[in-house]
Amino acid sequence: MSVPCVRAARENGETVRQLLADAGALSGEYEIEVVDDEIYLPLDPVANPAEIDPGLDVVDREPPRREGQTLPKDVLGFDPSYERLGDIAIVDEDDDERARRIAEAVLESDLPARTVVNRASPIEGELRVRQWDVLGGDGTETVHREHGCEFELDIAEMYFSPRLATERHRVVGGVERDERVFDMFAGVGPFIVPAAKRGAECVGVDLNEAAVEYLRRNAERNGVSDRVIAINADVRDVTGYDDWADRIVMNLPHSADGFLDTAVELAGEDCLLHYYDIQHDSDPFGPGERAIRAAAEPDYDVSIETRREVRSYAPQELNVCLDARLRRDR
């Protein structure tokens, strides 16, 4: 059977393998092959290599299947759709009987899944939490590994999307030692924990008390608790950080525009603002850029360094990021 594989030079094989492993993108069904000076790394069916690294060379190939490994499709007779977050398998099925059959097959298989859940509601409320039906296993807490960091979290208590791993890696890749990074909606720390590992001084704020507790645990878990301050509050009520930040993350699509005045207060003399938005694909960047300029000008000179489509959110809607440079106009 032909499957998508990432092709890389043999000498770069371990680096690419680690990149795919950190993103949870390696197939558990097929073997990695080395042929002459090239290595072929089979991809998980749900992986999107373009989101991991647009430069990856993806080819179709028929790698050998791992011997003796039982997969859910071997039990069911069809290939079910699911995604993994740590050792939790997540299905999205309207038919409860079908969902439970898939859960039983996942747990019976050799997949490294301890718990199977089904989405029971959309993302709801101010804390953006989803309801789950636990179909098998014993809880909704897990550890997610991403680009060399580990994040402990509970999907029943907070929002977390592993699909944004590439975007987080892009942002954090620009962080320099001794930068001051402020995440206005920090969650369990997927932006600021790796930023702190690069030597930045970081502040993370979140309204969700449980998420902030996990943020503190994750800072400790990754050895950066001395460079991370975690605050449980509405960021508009936080004091003591005016004119402080060199970099601000605003990952609250749909409503980040309501917090731009606070972001401007936090921004230092020269600050890079990562502003996330969801807009119609006819004008995905215009509303955000206008909102940023309205909040920051004339006190700051605003230049848009990057306009990036992060992913498709819904039909004709895009999740986008504007990287806006704010420089004090004196």
Explain this structure.
There is one protein chain. With 330 residues, the chain is of the alpha/beta class. It folds into three domains: 3-61, Alpha-Beta Plaits; 72-139, GMP Synthetase, Chain A, domain 3 (2-Layer Sandwich), CATH 3.30.300.110; 161-328, 3-Layer(aba) Sandwich (Rossmann fold). The protein is 23% helix and 34% strand. It is built from nine helices and 17 strands. It has helices spanning 13-22, 49-52, 72-76, 96-108, 165-172, 192-197, 209-221, 260-266, 286-296; strands at residues 3-9, 33-35, 38-42, 57-61, 83-85, 88-91, 115-119, 132-136, 141-146, 149-154, 180-183, 201-206, 228-232, 245-250, 267-280, 300-314, 317-328. A seven-stranded mixed β-sheet has the order 13-12-11-14-15-17-16, sandwiched between helices. A four-stranded antiparallel β-sheet has the order 2-3-1-4. A four-stranded mixed β-sheet has the order 5-6-7-8, with helices on one face. Strand 16 and strand 17 form a beta hairpin. The longest helix is centred in the N-terminal third of the chain and has 13 residues, at 96-108. It is globular and about 70 Å long. The relative contact order is 0.08. The mean pLDDT is 92.
| SSE run | EHEEHEHEEHEEEEHEHEHEEHEHEE
- Overall mean pLDDT stands at 92
Residue share in β-strands: 25-35%
CATH architecture designation of the largest domain: 3-Layer(aba) Sandwich
At the fold tier of CATH, the topology name of the largest domain is Rossmann fold
Going by helix content, strand content and strand pairing, the class is: alpha/beta
Low-confidence sequence ranges = none
Q: How many domain modules? A: 3
Give, in spatial order, the strands making up the sheet with the most strands: 13-12-11-14-15-17-16
Major sheet: 7 strands, mixed
Q: Could you name the CATH homologous superfamily of the largest domain?
A: Vaccinia Virus protein VP39
Apparent shape: globular
Termini separation: 64 Å
Quick one: how many beta strands? 17
Work out the helicity level.
Answer: 10-25%
Task: Specify the number of helices.
Answer: 9
Spatial extent as radius of gyration: 21 Å
CATH C-level of the largest domain:
Alpha Beta
